[in-house]
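Troubleshooting entry. The earlier prediction with ketopantoate gave an output that would not parse, so I re-checked the input for stray whitespace and re-submitted. Clean input:
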Amino acid sequence: MKIAVIGAGAMGSLYGALLAEAGEDVCLVDIWEDHVSSVNRRGLIVSSDDGDRAVPLRAVTGAAGLGPVDLILVFVKSYSTGEAARTALGLLGENTMVLTLQNGIGNVEQLGAILGPERVLAGTSAFGGTMLGPGHIRHAGSGPTMLGEISGQSTPRLEELAGVFLRAGLQPSVSDNIEGVLWTKLIVNVGINALTALTRIKNGQLLEIPELESVMDMAVAEAVAVAVKKNIKLVSHPLDHVKGIARATGGNISSMRQDVEKGRATEIDVINGAVDREGTSLGIPTPVNRVLAMLIKGLSTSIKEDSW
Ligand code: KPL
């Protein structure tokens, strides 16, 4: 399968490497020139508990001349989804699939509006990756890749995709309730990301500090109320699920804490901010999510301006 991965951060690069090692024809697309040139020069270096290996991969900073491809895998941060979709326009063939494994909600709709809703599939990833430097990532953990059609249908292209992911060791699991899967992941991020970024703790410590655990409970309860009002079927008991993930990823620095501390934009608008927006439009009170979103905006600004 000819695959373009748009957004070659740690996760995009990791998926690209595993798919290439399984024999797929993969190209990474990213605007980070140092990363792209390093990958082209010496392959992508993947470090893991088993040691380091170089995975030969092609990478480009723009999509000109690359398409058409069979699959566009979108892994950019959610605030760059519109830009990724415009890049993807040049890669479309008649049957090109577009798969988003990004955090937050709203990506499916944005990609569909630009590329055509019929092309878009969605999912979540439980793999862990960290960017160590240009051309160098750490494969930090593995877990299921949930995949599904937005319609919930089982289709030949979904089966084909699951087969490709299976051969690459990406542990695919096909769902007929992908909206429920996306919201369940959203609620994990709602409970963990902003709180760990604000207090600068590791995920597991949220469960050791009763005050933070109760803010987590409140933020999750609001998000669950919004999901229930939208008739979304969450795939497991939400609060237990969030706490289980906080425990399982106890040593992790959440992606939002990393973004804040590195002075990068965060995904707050598609996580706690999105819960607040949806809640407000449905008449569900979401004050905890609103305050968390506001505090993250304040923290991001103060960290950027903090020069002493
Ligand atoms: O998805 C994550 C993130 O950091 O964005 C969790 C599950 C919270 C793991 O760190």
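This one parsed fine. The chain is about 45% helix and 20% strand.
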